[in-house]
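Task: complex structure prediction.
Instruction: return structure tokens for all chains below.
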Amino acid sequence: MAGVKSPSGIRVTTFAYEDFQGLDTSRDITSLDTGKSQHLSIVKNGSCDWRGQMVRDPSATKVSGTSTIEHVSFYGANKFVFVERTGAGLDLKSDAGKIVENAYTSSDVVTSTVFNRNIIFSAKARQLRRFDGAEFYANASPAMDLLRPAYSTSTQSRLVVAGVSGNETSIYVSRVNQDEIWSDDEAEDSEDKAKAFEFDVANFLGTADKITGLGSFEQNRLVVFAADRALIYRTDPDYTRWLLDDNANIFIGCASHNTIQNAGTDLLFCSRSGIHSIKRSEDNGILVYSYSLSDKIDLLYRELFNSVDNPEKISAVFDQDNGQYHVFFPLPGNELCTRLTLSMNPESGESIPKYSTGDFLRARCGSFLNGQLLFGTTGGVYKILQPEAEDEGSVTPEMEVLTPLLWHGSLSETKETVSIIIQAAGKGQIAIDAQDDSGNIIGSMVIEVDDTADDNHFAGVPLSRQYERQWLHRYRAAQYRIKTTGGSGLMRIIGFAVNVRK
Amino acid sequence: MAEQSNLNSHIGDTNSPLETLAMQALRRFGDFHPGTIDGDVLLMFVEFANMVIDDVRTHPYHDGTAIDYYTSSTDVRKVPDPIIIQGLLYHYALQQASDKVSIYMPMYNKGLNQHMWHSVNGNTKIQMKITDGGTNKRNSEGLTTNKYNGTVTS
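Output:
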């Protein structure tokens, strides 16, 4: 609602900040004032979308559980199972109320995969379990009872497991469509091409490395991750046709099996140093390679990574509807958790995603199926709504954004500001405060944002969503903090500008 | 009924509260939506208005009626509303170092003089008259000559 009646006669230069690019921690906050394609120092509980708007994270409604959720997985549309922490250990629970108490000890890292329309749960040195939609069962295979693997995935009608104590480089593959028949369960002289089998990758790795995760990729590729590299196998229901893919050269390892997620044609995973993607070359269609997605936030990533006592506890989920990869870094104590989110660009041409963080509900794991995103939090399982959805029983996060030091031109002169313009849409309140380069708070204000019809249809207000406020301050450089409170549904900050006297 | 210089007769029968006048001044100045101004700016307008009261108190046309300073932005003082608004505009433009100060300053002085003159004399014809008696026989008829404009009244 800028003044439109007369010019004020004050000569100002407008410094506009727009097309927000999310976090960039690879540069110091003093050298990030770019104006166009502006990066930010903190983006919490919100993200920068592909248009460059800051968007508040969606609201959530509670669906099940009461205490800390360590793992959650869909077994059908709107139907899920989860691992809940109790004082004694980890319970396996279904949304329908089935429980296996103390199925795992409290330090176990549980992972799951879907095979034969069952959820297969695994944890290192624990029995393989499955849930068929009604009951939990222990795997009946005598061979599997000895293996007790840590990781599992499925490819080409076979369940694949690895991470067996004492055989850390071995991969065990089930019989086709059978999760309870493993290599030692087969007759020794069996010539069945569908039979279960096992193989050892120790001599392919060539180092003292061990398997740290399994993933499947495209229609018939198995990715075997070690700590420092990954091997890709071409798979087939016929075990004699399994081949090491020699067009793949991936010298990046995986730090946590639970971060391996398929995202379109790519496979996303977390290493010690960042978030990576495995994809097939668009140039020749043959070469498979990995590339880093997190160079812009290398320092932040390592800080988050080092805050976790056991890297295997890091987990991730890919929300394909919104193109977001959420990575959860649970802090020691089983209470706090930081979420790192990559927002992909749905438009082609730009491959570098935008980053944001969050601590909403202290979410620590997630699952996605059929347009539904679930977060396991310290207080049960929550369903994450679409960003624009409003639901009476939902809770809405408070977005916090902190800009880097904004210089408005000169690095040495003191600038005099006249006004600040915030362009925002949605419903809720925006609180803005700023501090100068010495850390002094220079001012704060609250702006009510309400783009309901009555606000949008005032005659004579040409930019109904443009909010200009007097902002008379002197500083050399300042960091602006924008927080949203209240309201629900879509809340977007499109850009802001500071008018500085000439 | 006495002549009114109340710009906001819908708010009160006499003059307008200072905050209303400040909003009008801000609207005319052209900065922002006036309703978004914070409390500090409104306090500054109290100071500006008190400087205007100083100008009125010491104006040669002022009849000497006591006018107290504004002590809050909701106060009402018996000063014509246009004087306060023009004074606020002048002081605000000066404080903001706006180019408009070169126009608001003469406008304020003109408005101040105009309204003070009007309140002391109204809109009457100005004539040159001898006021020291002279030989005209009306002097012996008990008529008086207005010392400001020379009008003769009985």
